[in-house]
């Protein structure tokens, strides 16, 4: 994060396998807490927004008081990332807050669904996003780029995902594309996908 001048966690040597999936514990002079949307601190093991505090963490945005106000809970900087701390303070990232899908009151981490779909033969790229749904609020949509000559349909995707994910996390729609929009650094632009699909809905 540019707002915190680089890395904020460090993995204890020798614990990489035991704590697989974790980014480590807070480095010296950095504090990490997990908070809900109201700013309330959450206990270990519970997903929420990752918040930072410390001398290397920004105190605000230059000449932008509105952005500064929305980026902090008191003196805790809101990273926009979702994750949790375990009982020993090891941090686990779940998703970007803006990429979380809320369907029927349940939180769905798009990254979790994407990891499962990447296990399918013939899947070259995948992005999972939430689109508005009258009944559920949002529904998960899988947008997939297939390898040459590979085939995939929604029933096949559904069957595969149901053995690996809770039912509410299984994509309700499958869209096959030739490519995914990306920024210059290669990150998939999910906001572009959302805008395109909502415009065509």
Automatic annotation (TrEMBL):
Residues 4-62 form the AMP-dependent synthetase/ligase domain. Keywords: Ligase. It is an enzyme of class 6 (ligase). GO terms for molecular function: acid-thiol ligase activity. The keyword Ligase applies. SUPFAM superfamilies: Acetyl-CoA synthetase-like. Its EC number is 6.2.1.44. InterPro entries: AMP-bd_C, AMP-bd_C_sf, AMP-dep_synth/lig_dom, ANL_N_sf, ATP-dep_AMP-bd_enzyme. It catalyses: 3-(methylsulfanyl)propanoate + ATP + CoA = 3-(methylsulfanyl)propanoyl-CoA + AMP + diphosphate. Residues 112-187 form the AMP-binding enzyme C-terminal domain. The keyword Hydrolase does not apply. It holds the Pfam family AMP-binding_C. Belongs to the ATP-dependent AMP-binding enzyme family. This is 3-methylmercaptopropionyl-CoA ligase.
């Amino acid at each position: 994060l540019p707002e915190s001048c680089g890395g904020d966690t460090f993995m204890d040597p020798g614990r990489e396998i035991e704590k697989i999936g974790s980014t480590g514990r807070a480095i010296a002079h950095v504090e990490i807490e997990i908070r809900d949307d109201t700013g309330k601190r959450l206990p270990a093991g519970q997903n929420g927004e990752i918040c930072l505090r410390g001398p290397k963490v920004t105190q605000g945005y230059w000449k932008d008081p509105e952005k500064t106000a929305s980026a902090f809970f008191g003196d805790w900087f809101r990273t926009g990332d979702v994750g949790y701390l375990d009982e020993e303070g090891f941090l686990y990232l779940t998703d970007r807050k803006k990429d979380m899908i809320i369907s029927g009151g349940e939180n769905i981490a798009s990254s979790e669904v994407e990891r499962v779909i990447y296990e399918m033969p013939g899947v070259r790229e995948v992005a999972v996003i939430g689109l508005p749904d009258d009944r559920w609020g949002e529904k998960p949509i899988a947008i997939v780029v297939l390898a040459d000559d590979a085939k995939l349909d929604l029933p096949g995707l559904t069957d595969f995902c149901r053995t690996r994910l809770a039912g509410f996390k299984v994509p309700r729609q499958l869209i096959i594309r030739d490519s995914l929009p990306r920024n210059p650094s290669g990150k998939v632009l999910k906001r572009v996908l959302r805008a395109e699909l909502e415009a065509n809905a």
